Amino acid sequence: QVQLVESGGGLAQAGASLRLSCATSGRILSSYTMGWFRQAPGKEREFVAAIHWSSGFTTYPVSAKGRFTISVDNDKSAVYLLMDNLKAEDTAVYFCAAGPASGSLMRLKGAAVVDYWGQGTQVTVSS
């Protein structure tokens, strides 16, 4: 059974940086894509970033490009999301995700192509 556990969330000021971590356990296939999603109160879950586990190919929505960076550490079986220049609208619960779809498909189809989810970590940005 695959398990994803997020950490690193918290309170940050606008303009600051924050790095989220996702510890993985179980059998994550090297062909899987790892992703980050977020969900703000009253809004749908939104795609934030994706990275193919073995190739390292990354995908971002336009809104995140330049500010968010996703990466993997194969030795630690971990996925990270570095968020720079945080804005109040980045406030949300951030979820780690894994699935067999490509990053492009994960960006287009969202939760529909995710097999595994973490429990989420809250990020609150004060302006």
Give the SSE order as H and E letters: EEEEEEEEEHEE
What is the beta-strand fraction? over 45%
Largest sheet: 7 strands, mixed
- Overall radius of gyration: 13 Å
Average pLDDT taken over every residue: 94
How many distinct beta strands?
Answer: 11
- Rough outline: globular
In percent, how helical is the residue content? under 10%
- Span between termini: 40 Å
Q: What class do helices, strands and sheet pairing give?
A: mainly beta
Q: Multimeric state of these chains? A: single chain
**Low-confidence spans: pLDDT under 50, at least 5 residues?**
none
Q: If helices are DSSP runs of H or I spanning 4 or more residues, what is the number of helices?
A: 1
Short structural summary:
The chain is mainly beta and 127 residues long. Helix content is 6%, strand content 48%. The termini are far apart.
Account of the 3D structure:
The protein is mainly beta. The chain has one helix at 103-109, and strands at 3-7, 10-13, 18-25, 33-39, 46-52, 58-59, 68-73, 78-83, 92-99, 116-117, 121-126. The strands form two sheets. Strands 2, 4, 5, 6, 9, 10 and 11 form a seven-stranded mixed beta sheet that branches. A four-stranded antiparallel beta sheet has the order 1-3-8-7, with no helix packed on it. Strand 5 and strand 6 form a beta hairpin. The N and C termini lie far apart (40 Å). The mean pLDDT is 94.
What are the defining features of this structure?
globular, 4-stranded antiparallel beta sheet, 127 residues, mainly beta, 48% strand
